[in-house]
Write a structure and sequence with these properties.
This protein is α/β, with parallel strands linked by helices. It is built from 16 helices and 24 strands. It has an eight-stranded parallel beta barrel. The chain has a six-stranded antiparallel sheet with strand order 17-18-19-24-21-22. Helix 9 packs parallel to helix 10 and helix 13 packs parallel to helix 15. The chain is globular.
Length: about 550
């Protein structure tokens, strides 16, 4: 039956080619500019949903719900905040219903504001908004060419609290705690104490947890949910094992709202075959959505998955090493993996960084990609923790080969050190909208991100093309992408101190071609294989004027 899902996907992709005319500029995940935000910390667009489920216990600093929601994200889509940054995909933390109680893992009383402590995968947490909000968000983003990537958690449920019972032992294990010494004690264990681990290695059928049955009956949705589950298992042929229930529930958001991808949490903590099945389930739902909504189909891309294999880096190519076992997650459902190497590699000179990444992405990782980041929600050693290298960070991130992941507030130097906060709470401060509106230094940095981000979005060659150095002093390089009938070429200069810029463009742009420097706005013609123009900026972004 799984083969049927794959064939359905292939036939639908073929059909979709007639739905949309071939675009002059394709959207390529390999060159995407992704904005990653914590839903609860980005913007409060609806203050009426700030308190639910009597979550009134005092939380530690930045460990309770702060009010951010889907409505706030919608407002910023409407305001063109993301479009102005050249963002063409938004990844947000999970929005499904979280545990109702709080727990202390050693860093203070904490609620599930971050979205990774699921209670019910079939419902959105009212603190984040409603399913109508999600529908509106996806539709408005798509109209502006922005893809939506949600966050999938299959590895674990939320912690057990006085308000949140443990899932039955046919669904989860509550011990042992992982010690991360080998494959087995990274996968068949709980990440931390009191974080029940889904039995993702099991194919044994399990009854629906009684607490969900009772919950759904109170909500008046039990019959509809059961009917939908029966249809899913009949269609796919999967056993009624816990992992397949969860895959189905997560794929419902694909089929219902047309989300474009999932970032997958805690990938290395389950058996790898889980993710191959998950991608197929999501692809089947993506195909169904496209068939039912032909006018809303953006392109022929497959459903996108990017995995968080904690500690994976591009230097490992396709294999992650557990010590006693190597696993290729790219062969198990993933187009991309988050690149934990980048924050260290960003300390290298431009050419060493760029040429190495281009070589790897067009050889060992050809057809795959990585998602580069410098700051994230759970990496306590970001590239620029004190926000003293903000321009360098933006330049290296947005011009590096691969996917760029801008973490909310990278573009505004949002603080990563908060008085009284402990651990990763520092990384999750509220978005600094007051600085965006009133601080000239913040606005100047944001403008830098906007120029580089728009150039990246306009030119898939930046992230997905082949890198070639043109000269070392001053430093210029080209990126060239050929995809079917589409060709994209750019030339970029960095740290160019002279006001008069003279660039050899022979072999990239033909004689007489009209070019523009996107950073300064200057225009010029190619004469004798060169262009010359005046600019005070040390950054040059040359593109052909169409």
């Amino acid at each position: 039956m799984k083969k049927v899902l794959i064939l359905l996907g292939f036939s639908l992709l073929t059909a979709c080619s007639s739905v949309k005319n071939s675009q002059e500029k394709p959207f390529l995940w390999e060159g995407a500019n992704v904005y990653f935000l914590l839903t609860d910390r980005f913007k409060n667009g609806d203050a009426t949903n700030d308190l639910n489920f009597d979550r009134t216990e005092k939380a530690a600093v930045l460990r309770g719900f702060e009010g951010g929601d889907l409505r706030g994200i919608i407002q910023k889509i409407d305001d063109n905040y993301f479009s102005d940054l050249g963002i063409n995909a938004i990844w947000m933390t999970p929005v499904v219903e979280q545990i109702h109680g709080a727990t202390n893992e050693g860093t203070g009383n904490t609620y599930g504001f971050h979205g990774y402590w699921t209670k019910d995968w079939t419902e959105l947490d009212p603190n984040f908004g409603t399913k109508n909000d999600l529908k509106e968000l996806v539709e408005k983003a798509h109209k502006k060419g922005i893809r939506i990537v949600l966050d999938a958690v299959i590895n674990h449920t939320g912690p057990v609290t006085e308000k949140d019972a443990v899932y039955p032992n046919s669904w989860v294990r509550t011990s042992p705690t992982c010690n991360y010494q080998n494959y087995e004690n990274t996968t068949a264990c709980t990440l931390v104490a009191n974080l029940p681990d889904i039995l993702t290695e099991s194919n044994q059928p399990a009854e629906l947890p009684q607490m969900l049955v009772e919950k759904w009956k109170k909500e008046g949705k039990y019959e509809a949910e059961m009917k939908s589950l029966e249809a899913f298992f009949a269609r796919t042929g999967y056993p009624k094992a816990p992992k397949y229930y969860i895959m189905k529930w997560l794929a419902d958001y694909v089929e219902e709202y047309g989300i474009d991808g999932y970032r997958v949490d805690t990938v290395k903590h389950t058996n790898e075959d889980v993710w191959k099945d998950f991608q197929q389930v999501c692809q089947g739902s993506f195909d169904i959505y496209k068939r039912k909504n032909p006018s809303k189909v953006l392109d022929n891309n497959l459903f996108f998955t990017v995995g968080e294999v904690y500690g994976y880096g591009i230097s490992q190519k396709q294999d992650y090493n557990f010590g006693d076992k190597k696993v290729n997650y790219y062969q198990n459902g993933f187009k991309s993996l988050i690149n934990f190497d980048f924050k260290g590699d960003a300390n290298k000179p431009y050419e060493e960084l760029f040429s190495n990444y281009s070589n790897l992405l067009h050889s060992d990782l050809n057809g795959k990609t990585v998602m580069n980041y410098l700051t994230s929600h759970d990496d306590g050693s970001p590239f620029d923790k004190d926000r003293k290298r903000t321009y360098e960070a933006g330049t290296k991130l947005l011009l590096a080969p691969g996917i760029s992941q801008v973490y909310y507030g990278d573009e505004t130097a949002r603080t990563l050190t908060v008085a009284g906060a402990d651990g990763d709470a520092n990384l999750r401060s509220n978005m600094n909208w007051n600085d965006v509106e009133n601080n000239s230094a913040t606005q100047k940095l944001a403008k830098h991100y906007q120029k580089l981000g728009k150039f990246r979005a306009n030119h898939p060659a930046v992230g997905a093309g082949v890198h070639q150095m043109i000269s070392n002093q001053p430093y210029y390089f080209s990126r060239i992408l050929t995809k079917g009938q589409f060709t994209d070429k750019v030339i970029i200069g960095l740290d160019v101190k002279e006001q008069l810029k003279e660039v050899n463009v022979a072999g990239v742009f033909a004689e007489g071609t009209q070019l523009r420097d996107f950073y300064s706005g200057a225009s010029m013609s190619v004469i004798n294989g060169k262009v010359s123009f005046s600019s005070n900026s040390p950054i040059i972004l040359l593109e052909k004027i169409n």
